[in-house]
Design goal:
heterodimer, A: 538 residues, Elongation Factor Tu (Ef-tu), domain 3, Rossmann fold, 3-stranded antiparallel beta sheet, 20 helices, 14 strands, B: 194 residues, mainly alpha, transmembrane (chain B), transmembrane helix (chain B), electron transport (chain B)
Chain lengths: 538, 194
């Protein structure tokens, strides 16, 4: 068939428009292959688990899967735009040539193909004039129809995936995103009609373009210029996308199978300020610190899966999540678990739950340092519940083997209301450490960034009491934002010559601040104190 | 899906349609396609739709993220009255704007997208939604420094509440500073005897 750029007859005909359409099409093949892969989360989990030989850094790249998915999506949008624009020119010129409004050579080429024994080059069969001709081609040819349909699907997917819609109206995002099924099917058959044509190799041998170009009236009559024959390329896209489509289908089947596995709710605890804790058991469930799961409750919604960070430690025989009641689904779950009723609920009344996971990087790095600084901002404090509990279990079981000797924990939030349960956890740890005479193991600092005048009066009056008025903890709550420079310097002076790990779960701005502090407070030589910043992607 | 505000999605879709109309229009006009006049119309309609849709409306619940620099356009769009406020009117307007662009293949995609946006707006209108502008309240800068000019003139015991209002703020700031620990004081601490 020949390369479509080298093939003179064709390239002269459509000048730059066709290669400009074919190039992004090739890119689209590649990108559409890639886009399905990062969302196969079970596959990624499997890869992460089984590639124990690869370094953690490589494995951690797998956690940026959603960022990659979004980047590839933008590339698809860009290439679709170029492809469409190029083909718009292509269609316009082809229709013009067919209706006689073009250079004589091109008109002659366009006339070919619609008599018996001929093959066409120009796909515009009817001699309608533009713009009706163009519209006719678009709605009667398979490539036109599939092109319009899948581009519309792509646009709808993109507009419903913006941050506003995703964060506030997740269902719109999730259900509209399933238009990708139509997108992929349309993409696979988009080129099936083979209307992009070029001279056949046989015809290239017989009909010399250079000689016959100006002798259009003699074609078929003289020996050197028989009527040229054309054929179309077979569709190539499906080679690229069939693999990932199959993998994604497997992924959905795995999710479905996992969701059918029995999950038993062993305990439901209501915490103040609209938070509930679900403790569950599932056969064969293994977790690490800091991971998250997807939860579905068919009684509330048969199709929705929602992610929650695990708040239990791997050492416990159950796994738990803490859920804040903020929307439709969480409220439905609240009612389904009988939390709105006062009396004790029977176990059989609890709803069936489906769990997928766990996913996410394990934060095992915490255990490889002697001293750590853990910083949780707002809702970012949730994974630290799992970490702190796990540290405590390890300490109780085998204190000598535990490398970790000291934890500095910083909790920044506007108010502790939403995380009363976490304050309770800290209180529990505090009492247990006192019993073991190791009150210094964990030192935590809670910073309330959202205080106001009336609270300030209250604090000032109760300043000297033994327990903190807000949290009931022995270590006092502090107000405003921490002075990181002071913090780092104090810790550095207390632990000279150690490697101190700094772990953050919070906003980007804070990550930058802490990173800078780590660098400026670390000693330059190999001896001395070193702060190592770990930006965890919980 | 009880809490969904369809207008938010309709707004995103309409904004995208505006951009697609502009692109299709530029292709048709620059390529000098037959009847490229429709292309020129498409550019104008696209620009109008983009300007109308750029300022995001206020959500009924929760805070709304403004688009960058939208407050200037909000003032203009507010003036249009029912054209911008009522979503039925917007749905009809978008449908009307979309139709002429359907005569050219280059702008046909824009027509389809704007028609979809129009139908989502219709759905939003059925649900009783309407566009409210996001207006920023002028921040009152607390004139704290202004009132702390002199130390309290009355010796203790001092009268309650009214007279004690401003000095108590200093008190709190001073005591917090005394308690030590790393904290940045929001109010300049004056060395006062508590």
């Amino acid at each position: 068939m020949g390369n479509w750029v080298e093939n003179e007859g064709l390239s002269i005909f459509v000048i730059a428009a066709l290669p400009l359409a074919r190039a992004p099409a090739a890119c689209l093949n590649f990108n559409c292959m890639l886009i399905l892969l990062p969302v196969c989360r079970n596959l990624l989990s499997f890869l992460r688990g089984s590639s124990a030989c690869c370094s953690t850094r490589i494995r951690r790249q797998l956690d940026r899967n959603l960022t990659f998915h979004k980047l590839v999506a933008w590339m698809i949008a860009l290439h679709t735009a170029i492809h469409t624009i190029a083909h718009l020119f292509n269609v316009e010129w082809c229709v013009d040539a067919r209706s006689g409004k073009s250079k004589p050579y091109l008109v002659a080429l366009s006339d070919l193909g619609y008599k018996p024994g001929e093959s066409y080059l120009n796909f515009a069969e009817k001699r309608f004039k533009n713009p009706e001709g163009g519209l006719y081609v678009a709605v009667t040819r398979l490539a036109g129809i599939t092109g319009i349909v899948i581009t519309l699907c792509l646009i709808l997917i993109i507009t419903s995936s913006t941050k506003t819609i995703r964060r506030s109206y997740f269902e719109v995002f999730w259900y509209t995103h399933h238009l990708f099924v139509i997108f992929f099917i349309g993409l696979a058959i988009h080129g099936a009609e083979r209307i992009v044509r070029g001279q056949t190799p046989q015809s290239l041998k017989e009909h010399n373009y250079t000689f016959c170009k100006n002798r259009t009236s003699e074609w078929g009559k003289i020996k050197e210029c028989p009527i040229p024959q054309f054929s179309g390329n077979p569709p190539m896209t499906w080679y690229w996308i069939v693999g990932p489509m199959f993998l994604y289908l497997c992924e959905r089947l795995v999710r479905f199978w996992r969701s059918q596995q029995k999950v038993v709710i062993t305990k439901v605890v209501t915490h103040p300020f609209k938070t509930i804790e679900l403790q569950m058991k599932k056969k064969g469930f293994k977790m690490e610190v800091g991971q998250y799961i997807f939860v579905k409750c068919p009684k509330v919604s048969r199709l929705e899966w929602h992610p929650f960070t695990l708040t239990s430690a791997p050492e416990e025989d159950f796994f738990s999540i803490h859920i804040r009641i903020v929307g439709d689904w969480t409220e439905g779950l609240f009612n389904a678990c009988g939390c709105d009723k006062q009396e004790f609920q029977d176990a059989w009344k609890l709803p069936k739950i489906a769990v997928d996971g766990p996913f996410g990087t394990a934060s095992e790095d915490v255990f490889s340092y002697e001293v750590v600084m853990l910083v949780g901002a707002g809702i970012g404090v949730t994974p630290f519940a799992s970490i702190l509990k796990s540290v405590w279990y390890k300490y109780c079981n085998n204190a000598t083997n535990l490398r970790l000797k000291k934890i500095y924990f910083y909790w920044l939030c506007r108010d502790t209301h939403a995380f009363e349960w976490f304050a309770d956890l800290l209180q529990l740890l505090e009492t247990q450490m006192q019993e073991r005479n190791n009150a210094d193991f964990l030192s935590y600092n809670i910073y309330l960034t959202g205080w106001d005048e009336s609270q300030a009066d209250h604090f000032a009056v109760h300043h000297d009491e033994e327990k903190d008025v807000i949290t009931g903890l022995k270590q006092k709550t502090l107000y405003g934002r921490p002075n990181w420079d002071n913090e780092f310097k104090t810790i550095a002076s207390q632990h000279p010559n150690t490697r101190i790990g700094v772990f953050l779960c919070g906003p980007e701005a804070l990550a930058e601040t802490l990173n800078k502090q780590c660098i400026s407070n670390s000693d330059s030589g190999p001896r001395g104190v070193h702060f190592i910043f770990n930006k965890e992607n919980f | 899906m009880g809490q969904i505000e369809w207008a938010m999605w309709a707004n995103e879709q309409a904004l995208a349609s505006g951009l697609i109309l502009i692109t299709g229009g530029i292709v048709a006009t620059a390529g000098q396609f037959t009847k490229w006049g429709f292309g020129a119309y498409s550019i104008a309609a696209g620009v109008f739709v983009c300007l109308l849709e750029y300022p995001r409306g206020k959500r009924r619940k929760g805070s709304t993220m403004e688009r960058c620099g939208q407050k200037y356009l909000t003032r203009v769009v507010k003036v249009l009255g029912p054209l911008s406020k009522n979503y039925y009117v917007r749905a009809v307007l978008h449908l009307g704007l979309a139709v002429p662009a359907g005569f050219l293949l280059a702008t046909l995609l824009g027509t389809a997208c704007l028609a979809i946006a129009s139908s989502i707006y219709l759905l939003a209108a059925f649900h009783g939604e309407q566009w409210t502008p996001i207006e920023s309240k002028p921040k009152e800068r607390p004139q704290v420094g202004g009132t702390i000019k002199q130390p309290p003139s009355n010796p203790p015991p001092r009268p309650p509440a009214e007279a004690r209002k401003k000095p108590s703020e200093e008190e709190a700031a001073a005591s917090a500073a005394v308690s030590g620990g790393p904290q940045e004081n929001p109010v300049l601490v004056v060395d006062e005897v508590v």
